[in-house]
């Protein structure tokens, strides 16, 4: 996910949330009340063209349903808000930042007027049904919604608070109307991360097949830079704010992992961090149907494609970490490649946590040279983005593999040239993984100057990015000929949905074709509807959109528009909860760095300030209107 001002120095941020509600009772279904639903096709909407629409979140799209008897019906879609990040639900403000003791972290930027820091950046959603959950008191089915609040954009005087103020996650109790499927939040609690030293910039997330939530920690701090100067990176300020202790020393190796959140039937939650899944810029982790294989987005410049294979199903506490080698087969239209997997190592969470608890530093793991030297490997990876010459110290291979996964992977020959690798989702039936690459540039272009230590990826530049399809296969071997114990190993990677740059900005400021996806970010796949949903985090579209792409017909439909300068985040398809289907998605940082020309920009900004508390509110919600596939006739 991304924020344009942070793209240069830190890389990006997220924006919005939406959900497709599939009501099971609809008068429009009466004519086909005995017909089973065969398929759903989305009829797209136009991009907004006036200031009021450009300052709002809305849809005018529709769903065309085809029944088994051959009849068809159209259903208009609407966007429904669950709550804003600034809303208080049963005494708790949704997006409030909390410290190690669960107390609000105060913004004292205006003397004598302390107020809590509250996020404007809701991101990941996991809507789930928990067996044994108590009734809500509203008469509906009780559900649970886990939501990330990725960062605080700014304090009360406009100074950036990104990465400085600890992030948070909420667990909301949701009442699901038994007849209409309408969702209403009845309670909300904050997740306690004190057992894992807090939460570092949680971006996207996912629901596991065993009904837990995989969170994320994005933009891992550079441990080498921090060791040289502790005032560099956000580690020091983050630590002091979370522990409310000016003397507390930070540790960059405590952050950059996948936390797993378990929500219990009484509404309480517990957290573990999976250190054995590697430390890098976790956009999210997505678990394959075998309940063992996990693929990750690694956001930033000069990043890697990673895969983890757990030792046991539904247990991510130990396993083997792999990094991909891109073997290019085509450079056109986003390109394609074969993938070879390099094993980085095997570890348990406990083994890696022991290194962290002992206060391991970058210099404990690597030797460094400032010029080419025997035994040193020249690499270039995130987070440094610079050419480094490194050698792993004897006996520190495991520490390198799991605490410096990208640097170690590059030393072993894995491809470290991916740029803005974002969302990940899986098509279980077809054994496909979909990966969003937001910008096809920088390390993914051909190195025409020959300056970089590696040039595996040599694509034609497309700033608007592309979504890729990875084919999964069994009986695969790693780069050293060892069997990979998974039937879900990505063997090829091909561009599927590709954006198109414009030679110059149009009348609305768009620099990418408005009727194609630009800068894909969130991805979620519906098995029932055979549809890949794509949310944008674009600096090239005046408004970001959510799209529906049918993997069979290849039809692309715009189904949601979010306010200018906002990002569409928190995308999650839930195909069947008590007979209803939802596609969750959120809106974050409305009005942030709009690319609109004046005077249109001023008009849009005025409406955004009215709609979103002077740009301080993100939004959690869903699209309503799609008939439920599971119930078929809607009854």
UniProtKB/TrEMBL annotation:
Residue ranges the record marks as coiled coil: none
Source organism: Brevibacillus fluminis
Protein's name in the database: DUF839 domain-containing protein
InterPro entries: PhoX
PANTHER family to which the protein is assigned, alphabetical: DUF839 DOMAIN-CONTAINING PROTEIN, SLR8030 PROTEIN
Species classification: Bacteria, Bacillati, Bacillota, Bacilli, Bacillales
Key words, A-Z: Signal
Keyword ATP-binding in annotation: no
Source organism, top-level taxon: Bacteria
Signal peptide stretch: 1-30
């Amino acid at each position: 996910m991304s924020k344009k001002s942070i793209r240069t120095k830190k890389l990006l941020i997220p924006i919005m949330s939406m959900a497709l509600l599939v009501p099971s009772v609809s008068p429009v279904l009466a004519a086909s009340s005995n017909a089973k639903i065969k398929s759903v096709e989305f009829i797209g909407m136009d991009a907004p063209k006036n200031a009021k629409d450009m300052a709002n979140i809305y849809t005018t799209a529709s769903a065309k349903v085809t029944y088994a008897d051959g009849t068809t019906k159209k259903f208009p879609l609407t966007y429904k808000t669950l709550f804003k990040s600034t809303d208080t639900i049963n005494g708790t403000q949704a997006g409030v930042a909390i410290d190690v003791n669960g107390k609000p972290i105060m913004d004292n930027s205006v003397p004598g007027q302390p107020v809590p820091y509250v996020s404007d950046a809701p991101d990941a959603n996991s809507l789930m049904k928990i067996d044994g959950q108590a009734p809500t008191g509203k008469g509906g089915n009780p559900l649970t919604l886990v939501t990330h609040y990725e960062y605080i954009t700014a304090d009360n005087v406009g100074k950036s608070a990104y990465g400085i103020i600890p992030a948070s996650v909420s667990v909301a109790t949701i009442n699901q109307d038994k007849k209409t499927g309408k969702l209403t939040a009845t309670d909300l609690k904050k997740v306690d991360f004190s057992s894992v030293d807090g939460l570092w910039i949680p971006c996207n997330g996912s629901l596991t097949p065993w009904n837990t939530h995989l969170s994320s920690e994005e933009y891992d701090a550079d441990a080498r830079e921090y060791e040289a100067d502790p005032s560099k990176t956000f580690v020091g300020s983050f630590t002091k704010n979370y522990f409310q202790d000016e003397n507390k020393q930070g540790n960059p190796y405590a952050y950059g992992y996948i936390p797993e959140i378990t929500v219990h039937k009484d509404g309480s939650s517990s957290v573990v961090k999976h250190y054995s899944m590697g430390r890098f810029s976790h956009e999210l982790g997505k678990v394959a149907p075998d309940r063992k294989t996990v693929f990750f987005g690694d956001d930033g410049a000069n990043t890697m494609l990673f895969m983890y294979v757990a030792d046991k199903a539904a247990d991510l506490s130990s396993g083997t970490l792999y990094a991909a080698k891109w073997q290019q087969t085509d450079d056109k239209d986003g390109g394609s490649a074969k993938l070879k997997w390099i094993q980085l190592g095997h570890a348990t969470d406990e083994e890696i946590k022991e290194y962290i608890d002992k206060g391991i530093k970058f210099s404990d793991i690597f030797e460094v040279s400032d010029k080419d030297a025997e035994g040193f490997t020249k690499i270039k990876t995130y987070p440094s983005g610079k050419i480094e010459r490194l050698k792993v110290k004897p006996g520190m291979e495991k520490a390198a593999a799991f605490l410096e996964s990208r640097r170690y992977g590059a030393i072993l020959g894995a491809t470290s040239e991916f740029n803005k690798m974002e969302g990940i989702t899986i098509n279980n039936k077809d054994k496909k993984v979909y990966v969003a690459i937001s910008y096809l540039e920088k390390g993914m272009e051909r190195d025409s100057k020959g300056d970089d230590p590696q040039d595996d990826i040599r694509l034609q530049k497309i700033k608007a990015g592309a979504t890729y399809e990875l084919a999964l296969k069994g009986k695969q071997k790693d780069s050293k000929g060892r069997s990979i114990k998974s039937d879900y190993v990505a063997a090829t990677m091909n561009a599927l949905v590709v954006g198109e740059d414009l030679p110059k900005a149009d009348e609305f400021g768009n620099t990418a074709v408005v009727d194609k996806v630009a800068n894909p970010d969130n991805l979620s796949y519906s098995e029932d509807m055979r549809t890949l949903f794509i949310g944008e985090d674009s600096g090239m579209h005046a408004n970001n959109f959510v799209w529906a792409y049918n993997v069979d017909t290849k039809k692309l439909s715009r189904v949601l528009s979010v306010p200018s300068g906002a990002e569409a985040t928190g995308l999650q398809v839930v195909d069947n909860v008590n007979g209803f289907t939802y596609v969750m998605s959120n809106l974050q940082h409305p009005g942030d760095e709009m690319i609109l020309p004046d005077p249109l920009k001023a008009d849009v900004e005025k409406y955004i300030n009215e709609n979103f508390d002077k740009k301080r509110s993100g939004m959690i919600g869903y699209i309503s209107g799609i008939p439920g596939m599971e119930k078929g006739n809607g009854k």
